[in-house]
Amino acid sequence: MPDRTPRDASFDAAWRVARTVDGWLTEAQARDLHRAASAVAPGRVVEIGSHLGRSTIVLASTGAAVTAIDPFPDDWRYGRPDTEQRFRDHLAAAGVEGNVDVRVATSRDVRTAWDDGVRLVYVDGKHDMWSCLDDLRWSAFLQPGDTVLVHDAFSSLGVTLALLRDQTATRRHRYVGRTGSLARFEVATPSVGDRLRVVGELPWFARNLLVKVLLRLRLRPAAALLGHRDTADPY
Ligand SMILES: C[S@@+](CC[C@H](N)C(=O)[O-])C[C@H]1O[C@@H](n2cnc3c(N)ncnc32)[C@H](O)[C@@H]1O
């Protein structure tokens, strides 16, 4: 196995670069990604949804082998024709391109042809319910005790619905907790209590939806009353 360990695999070194790349990962969430990827490095991490590489850089800086999946469509709110090139430039600038296997394809297309082991799955792709449910199927390549991280778990209607459906329809993901709306699941049989803890996050989800509405209405002071002082949506 090639030695992928970067000269400085610390979180601080990774975040110094990643924070300069536009994206929706907070520092605390980036720490979670870094911790989870460090625990499995140099094993395989699958990232679904890379955009400009903010999270990819954090994951790959640990020395993990990252498969970064993104079709880079330019027909969504933040998509541009040069997104893929900017993503590749960011990886190169961070010095992690050697650790990243870039797949310009949908998560489903890569998954249906996949025949390798995976140690960590990070879901941050298309945010409608069906796509997210499909992305969660990547966990079939994980072993019991491995981790699935889901971004926007309680700040996006489609992702939240997918998680509720997954919790009622499968017995594969045990909810561990969240950092903002980055949720951590362990591949393990959830107890009833574990499932109820996901339902228990719904007030937090409702608060985030309300904040989004207030921001759309340009009512930032009202959003601030709910503890949201950013101009960006909560995530
Ligand atoms: C919220 S962004 C990802 C942000 C990124 N993780 C970061 O840290 O900045 C969602 C990404 O999912 C990608 N995407 C859309 N459909 C997808 C699919 N079917 N499979 C994988 N990624 C997809 C989009 O192109 C977009 O770049």
Automatic annotation (TrEMBL):
<dbReference type="GO" id="GO:0032259">
    <property type="term" value="P:methylation"/>
</dbReference>
<keyword id="KW-0489">Methyltransferase</keyword>
<dbReference type="GO" id="GO:0008168">
    <property type="term" value="F:methyltransferase activity"/>
</dbReference>
<dbReference type="InterPro" id="IPR029063">
    <property type="entry name" value="SAM-dependent_MTases_sf"/>
</dbReference>
<keyword id="KW-0808">Transferase</keyword>
<protein>
    <submittedName>
        <fullName>Class I SAM-dependent methyltransferase</fullName>
    </submittedName>
</protein>
<dbReference type="Pfam" id="PF13578">
    <property type="entry name" value="Methyltransf_24"/>
</dbReference>
